[in-house]
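User: Can you recover a sequence for this backbone? Please restate the input before giving your answer.

Assistant: Of course. Working from this structure:
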C-alpha cells in the first residue's frame, strides 16, 4: 500500500509539473529559434564580407583582361586563340574544383561536429537532462558569428594603433630622403640602450608589395624585426617608400633608381658611422638589395648582405613559379594583365591584383569560404567560452588586408623576370642594371659576407627559391622554424626560442642580429677605423 501511495503521489506531482516543464521547453525552443535565425543572418553576412575582397579583385582582373585582349585577340591566329582560351578555361575549372573541394571539406568537418553537438543539446532539452541545452547552444552560435563578422574585423582595424611604424609618435629619426624614398633611423625602445655612433650601420630594404610595416610588427609586444637590432645598440635604418599615388618619380622608377638611391643612403651612413654598411633585405627587398650590390653601385660602401625569406630564383617555386609557368597559359603570363594607369598617365602594377594572384595560386587555403570557416573554428570554443583574439593574428590580418600598394612597373618587371627566367649556369641573374649583367660570383670576389635566412615551412618563398645562390657560391644559411612571417614576428621576440640575436637549433644557426654583432666585433678586433 505504501509503494502504491508513493507511485500515485509521484504521478500526480509529475502531472502538476508537466505544464510548467513543457512551457519551459517551449520557451527554450522559441529562444533557440530566434538565436539560430540571428546566427544564420550573421553567417550569410559573413559570407558576403569574406567574398567581397576576393570578388572585387576578380572584377579588377576581368577589367584588365578585357582591355588587353581587345588588342590581342584580333592580332592572334584563330587557332591560337582557341588553344589559349581552352587552356584558360581548363585552369579556371581546376581552380573552381579546388575551391569547391576545399570548401566542402572544411564546411563538412565543421558542421558534422556542430550537428552532433546540436542533437545532444536538443535531447538534453526535451528529456530535461543535464548539460548544454538547445537555447544555450544556439546562443553560443549567434555569439560566435557576431565575433567573426563584427568583433574580429574591428580588432583587425584597431590593431593599427600598435602595428607597424608610427614615425610621428617618436622613436624614429628622419635621416635623409630622395625623390622616391625616406630613410629613418630606428631608435632603441629602452632608454638605457644607446646607439653606438661608431657601430656598423644596417639599412633595411623592405618588400615593395606589402610595405615596411611588417618589419615593425608589434613593437609593444617585443615583436619587431628592426627594433631587435636597435635594442642591441646597432645603428639601424629603414628605407620607406614614398606614396606612389602622389609621387610620380616613384611611379616611374626602375632598378637603376633603386640602386642609385640605396647608394646615396649608404654614402651618408658610411660617412656618419665611419664603417661600411650592411644591407638587409626582407622578402622581395632581398632580391632588390642583391641586384643593387651586384650592379657595382655599392662598391666600397657595403661589405655585408642579409636576406630574409627572399625569392632569389622564382622559377624554383613550387607555388607561384609553377602557377605562372605550368598552369597559366603563357599568353596570359604578361604584366599587361595587371597594369593600372595613374591619373598622370604613368603605368603601375596593381598591388591589389598582385596580392590576389597569390590567393588564386593557393586557392585551396585562401578561398573566402575556407577562410570564413577557419576563422569560425579559431574564434569558437567547445566550452562556450569566448576565445581571446590574438594580437599577432589580428596584426597579420591587418597587414594582409590593408598594406597592399601599387608597384612601379620597372620594379615589378624585375620580380616578373626572376619568376620566369632561372639563374644561368654561370650564376647570372635574369635582370640587368645600368646595362650590366648581375653575376653571383661578384659577392665572393668583393669579399661581401652574406647570410641567407629562410623559413622551413614557408609556402610563399620556399626553401629552394631562397637558397638558389648556394648552388653557385658559398653563403651562410640560417633555417628558421615556421613560415614566411615568423622571422619578423615570432622570432623577433628576444625571449623566443630562435631569437635573432642568438644561435639556435641543432645546427646552431646565427640569427641576423648576431650576424651583425659578430661583424662589428670582428671589425673592432681588427682595429678598423671608427667614425
Amino acid at each position: 500500500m505504501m509503494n502504491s501511495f508513493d507511485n500515485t503521489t509521484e504521478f500526480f506531482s509529475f502531472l502538476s509539473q508537466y505544464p510548467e516543464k513543457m512551457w519551459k521547453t517551449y520557451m527554450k525552443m522559441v529562444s533557440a529559434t530566434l538565436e539560430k535565425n540571428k546566427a544564420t543572418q550573421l553567417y550569410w553576412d559573413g559570407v558576403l564580407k569574406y567574398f567581397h575582397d576576393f570578388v572585387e579583385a576578380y572584377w579588377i582582373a576581368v577589367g584588365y583582361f578585357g582591355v588587353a585582349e581587345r588588342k590581342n585577340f584580333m592580332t592572334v591566329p584563330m587557332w591560337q586563340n582557341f588553344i589559349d582560351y581552352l587552356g584558360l578555361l581548363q585552369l579556371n575549372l581546376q581552380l573552381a574544383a579546388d575551391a569547391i573541394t576545399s570548401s566542402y571539406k572544411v564546411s563538412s568537418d565543421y558542421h558534422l561536429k556542430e550537428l552532433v553537438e546540436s542533437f545532444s543539446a536538443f535531447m538534453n532539452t526535451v528529456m530535461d537532462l543535464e548539460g548544454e541545452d538547445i537555447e544555450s547552444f544556439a546562443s553560443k552560435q549567434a555569439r560566435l558569428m557576431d565575433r567573426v563578422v563584427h568583433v574580429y574585423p574591428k580588432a583587425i582595424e584597431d590593431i593599427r594603433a600598435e602595428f607597424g611604424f608610427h614615425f610621428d609618435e617618436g622613436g624614429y629619426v628622419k635621416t635623409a630622403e630622395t625623390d622616391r624614398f625616406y630613410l629613418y633611423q630606428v631608435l632603441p625602445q629602452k632608454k638605457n640602450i644607446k646607439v653606438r655612433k661608431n657601430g656598423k650601420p644596417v639599412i633595411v630594404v623592405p618588400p615593395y608589395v606589402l610595405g615596411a610595416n611588417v618589419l615593425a610588427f608589434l613593437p609593444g609586444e617585443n615583436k619587431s624585426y628592426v627594433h631587435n637590432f636597435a635594442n642591441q645598440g646597432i645603428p639601424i635604418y629603414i628605407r620607406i617608400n614614398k606614396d606612389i599615388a602622389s609621387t610620380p618619380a616613384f611611379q616611374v622608377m626602375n632598378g637603376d633608381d633603386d640602386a642609385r638611391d640605396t647608394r646615396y643612403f649608404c654614402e651618408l651612413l658610411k660617412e656618419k658611422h665611419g664603417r661600411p654598411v650592411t644591407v638587409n633585405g626582407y622578402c622581395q627587398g632581398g632580391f632588390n638589395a642583391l641586384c643593387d650590390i651586384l650592379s657595382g653601385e655599392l662598391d666600397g660602401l657595403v661589405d655585408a648582405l642579409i636576406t630574409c625569406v627572399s625569392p632569389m630564383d622564382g622559377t624554383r617555386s613550387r607555388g607561384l613559379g609553377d602557377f605562372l609557368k605550368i598552369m597559366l597559359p603563357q599568353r596570359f603570363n604578361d604584366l599587361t594583365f595587371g597594369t593600372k594607369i595613374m591619373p598622370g598617365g604613368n603605368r603601375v602594377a596593381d598591388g591589389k591584383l598582385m596580392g590576389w594572384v597569390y590567393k588564386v595560386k593557393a586557392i585551396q587555403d585562401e578561398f573566402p569560404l575556407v577562410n570564413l570557416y577557419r576563422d569560425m573554428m579559431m574564434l569558437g570554443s567547445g566550452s562556450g567560452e569566448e576565445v581571446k583574439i590574438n594580437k599577432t593574428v589580428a596584426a597579420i590580418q591587418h597587414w594582409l588586408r590593408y598594406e597592399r600598394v601599387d608597384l612601379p612597373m620597372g620594379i615589378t618587371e624585375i620580380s616578373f623576370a626572376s619568376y620566369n627566367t632561372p639563374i644561368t649556369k654561370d650564376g647570372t641573374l635574369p635582370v640587368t642594371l645600368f646595362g650590366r649583367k648581375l653575376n653571383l660570383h661578384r659577392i665572393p670576389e668583393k669579399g661581401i659576407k652574406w647570410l641567407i635566412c629562410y623559413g622551413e615551412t614557408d609556402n610563399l618563398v620556399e626553401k629552394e627559391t631562397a637558397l638558389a645562390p648556394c648552388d653557385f657560391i658559398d653563403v651562410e644559411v640560417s633555417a628558421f622554424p615556421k613560415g614566411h612571417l615568423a622571422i619578423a614576428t615570432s622570432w623577433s621576440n628576444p625571449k623566443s626560442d630562435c631569437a635573432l640575436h642568438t644561435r639556435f637549433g641543432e645546427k646552431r644557426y646565427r640569427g641576423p642580429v648576431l650576424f651583425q654583432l659578430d661583424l662589428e666585433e670582428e671589425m673592432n678586433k681588427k682595429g678598423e677605423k671608427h667614425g
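That completes the design. The longest helix spans residues 2-72.
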